[in-house]
Design brief:
The chain has 418 residues and is of the alpha/beta class. The chain has helices at 9-16, 25-38, 58-66, 76-85, 101-109, 120-130, 171-183, 203-224, 250-267, 281-284, 317-321, 410-413, and strands at residues 3-4, 7-8, 20-24, 45-51, 70-73, 92-94, 114-117, 137-144, 166-167, 187-193, 230-232, 274-277, 288-299, 304-308, 327-329, 339-344, 353-360, 368-372, 392-396, 401-405. The strands form 3 sheets. Strands 3, 13, 14, 15, 16, 17, 18, 19 and 20 form a 9-stranded mixed beta sheet that branches. The chain has 2 domains: 39-281, TIM Barrel; 287-413, Beta Barrel (Lyase, Ornithine Decarboxylase, Chain A, domain 1), CATH 2.40.37.
Length: 418
């Protein structure tokens, strides 16, 4: 018998059906508490933002609100979800490299606290819109410090040709953008934002980012008289997908970052008074489990397939950038893992492979395959490929289980069609 959040997986599957995404709510609460309690300083104001792109729904927004986190959104849809949840929009940071005019207007109508500006054109457009704002619109400028964390090439976001932010190498444009924000009516320029990648296991990458941002901030003050008080260090904290992954404990990485920030404030850039981080994946990934029902077993000359009732429609990551996962068969954890399977989905696509090769006990039709660490970028990147409805999402805690997103029906899926 296998459990998630203290609840029998077979009973969860019987109650809510499969495919099913189950979150261990207590595990998420533990991780939220780790971030809030560890990222603190006696010398600096600190703040933790939840990067909602990892997984966004009303129940998730309510959960991070309970722990006092700020919220990072990257679209009108994520913003609307927070707004409808009743979240305080003044605590929202609106990111994105190509916010539409409608999104910027919506942000100001909802009194979003901070807009993270990506480029000069956006700064100029925002400066015009903010003239009509009835509150001070706080801003950060996303910069590109040129630090490359060791991650998959598709999820490195701070190299010099990244689509995100303005590179330190383009200092003239960077300074011009800041001046537009500083001189804008109803705009307050708070500081800089950077994000150096995802799945970072090397603390040193974060510390180099901190040193570079503090030093560059001081140079902006000395060379151009630009004054601000905030640095947002982004996210990218690594999580464990397989035994190959060795993430640094959250307490250790946060304390190292705080110590370096305090040192850099004292010796390099005294004007910085506030530092922020943006964990997303590291809050929800390991708490999430995808529960599938195994269907047919198929032998080919070189592979043994176990087909499941989900696939790339509910987890595109293996097909998109060869993400690796671990899994187990419910109720067979103690049995010998003596058979190598390729776990494939039901989508009509040769690339619909969830796990290329995994050792498991003998699998049979009707078994439940449970993929681990699927809480980030599974549901949020899900699609309707092959007209397959989206799965249900359940939060499981010691005291209860609750369906936070209903299983999509066929009628709902075609409800916008004429």
């Amino acid at each position: 018998m296998s459990f998630i959040g203290g609840h029998d997986i077979r009973k969860l599957a019987d109650t809510y059906g499969t495919p099913l995404l189950v979150y261990d709510e207590d595990a998420m609460r533990k991780r939220l508490n780790e971030f809030v309690s560890s990222f603190k300083s006696e010398k600096l104001e600190t703040g933790v933002l939840y990067a909602s792109k990892a997984f966004s729904c009303k129940a998730m927004v309510s959960l991070i609100d309970e722990y006092g986190l700020y919220l990072d959104v990257v679209s009108a849809g994520e913003l609307f979800t927070a707004y409808k949840t009743g979240y305080d929009c003044s605590k929202i940071f609106f990111h994105g490299n190509n916010k539409t005019l409608q999104e910027l207007k919506m942000a100001m109508q909802m009194h979003v606290g901070t807009i993270v500006v990506d480029n000069l054109m956006e700064a100029e457009e925002l400066a015009e819109l903010a003239k009509e704002a009835d509150y001070p619109v706080h801003t950060l400028l996303r910069v590109n410090p040129g630090i490359e964390a060791h991650t998959h090439k598709y999820i490195v976001t701070a190299h010099v040709d990244s689509k995100f932010g303005i590179s330190f190498l383009n200092e003239e444009e960077l300074v011009e953008t800041i001046k537009v924000l500083q001189n804008g009516e109803n705009i307050v320029f708070d500081g800089l934002h950077a994000h150096i990648g995802s799945q970072i296991f090397d603390i040193q990458a974060f510390l180099e980012e901190i040193k570079k941002l503090f030093a560059y901030s001081q140079s902006l003050k000395e060379k151009y008289g630009i004054d601000f008080h905030t640095i947002n260090l982004g996210g990218g904290f690594g999580v464990k997908y397989t035994e190959e992954d060795k993430p640094v404990p959250i307490e250790k990485v946060c304390q190292s970052m705080i110590q370096t920030c305090e040192e850099e404030q004292e010796k390099t850039c005294p004007m910085i008074q506030r530092v922020l981080i943006e964990p997303g994946r590291s809050i929800v990934a390991e708490a999430g489990y995808s529960v599938y029902t195994i269907g047919y077993i198929k032998k080919t000359p070189n592979k043994l397939y176990a087909f499941v009732d989900g696939g790339m429609n509910d987890n595109i990551r293996p097909a998109l950038y060869q993400a690796k996962y671990d899994a187990f068969i419910e109720g067979k954890e103690e049995e010998e893992k003596n058979t190598s399977y390729t776990i494939a989905g039901k989508c009509c696509e040769s690339g619909d492979i969830l796990i290329e090769s995994i050792e498991l006990p003998k699998a049979e039709k009707g078994d439940l395959l449970v993929m681990k660490t699927t809480g980030a970028y599974g549901y949020s990147m899900a699609s309707h490929y092959n007209k397959i409805p989206l799965p249900a999402v359940v939060f499981a805690s010691e005291k209860e289980t609750r369906e936070v997103i209903e299983r999509e029906t066929f009628e709902h899926m075609i409800s916008l069609e004429k």
